[in-house]
Structure formats: C-alpha cells, structure tokens
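We examine the record.
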Amino acid sequence: MSFELISTFSFLIQKQAVDEIVKCNEYTSKFGLTLTHIDALGLIETRSLSLKNYGRIEFGSGVIDKIIKAFCDSPYISMYNYVETLHVLIEMFYFYKNETLDLITDDELIRFMKNAFDGECQGSLELLSGRELDGLARNLCYGYEPDDVDEDDWEEEDENGEY
C-alpha cells in the first residue's frame, strides 16, 4: 500500500470519527453540552495517544461517543468542564481496559465509571481513578466480584465521611 493511499485512508477514518463525535451534539444539546469540530479532533488525538501509550488497537470512533452519551447527563459536568472531563475519561477508560485485563466489556466499564462518578465520587475524577477504578481492576484481577469492597479501603475516611 502506498504512502498516499495510507494517508488518504487515515484522513477518511479521522473525518468519520469527528463526524460521529459531533453528531453526538444532537443528543447532548438537551443537557446544554456541545462539542466543536476542534473539540472532536482533540478527543480523537487523546484517544490515539492513549491507544498508543497502552498498546491497544481500535477501529472507527471507538468508545468516545459511548462515553459522551453516558456522561452527558451527569450533574457534575457542565460546558465549563465538559471537554476537559471527556479527555480525562477517555484516557482513564483505556488505562483501565488494560488494568482490568479486558475482563470487563467496554459498556460495562463505561457504566461502572458513570455510576461511580455520579455516585461515590460525586464528580471527582481523582476518586474515580484512584479509588473506584483501582478497586475494580484489583477485584477483577484477583477473581472477586467487581463491586467487592475491602473494609480496609474505608479506613481513610475521616469522622465527617470525607476522604
């Protein structure tokens, strides 16, 4: 395959991915959230870097549109933090796909991330990554139920119930 043909093919795949992401605006606009073409290109670049960093391969727009649609109704996301949060969630998704040894499907991982983000983490990406997703990965790798809680994990909570 010649270099020009590969470049043209890559451009067409990227254009299709951008179009799919921007098309999510039809759904997310009812939550007051929209992305520009430049935002979409940035998200695709984050996905590409994450795939490269974690040695993964993916075709099409991947899971970006699923993450967008899953998180757009979160009470912790607004236009103020929308794009930045999506970048972190995308990178986090691919990191934990590796950490969970692919023992969980994409949809299950996104659902777990969303429930934890809106629930226990109350919108904190640090708690989502550092506590909830680490716990999920540990549980799956050691053969426990995904939501199995180690009582020692809760010792860091202070008397006000904060971490």
User: Anything to note?
Assistant: Residues 1-142 form one domain. The chain has one domain: 1-142.
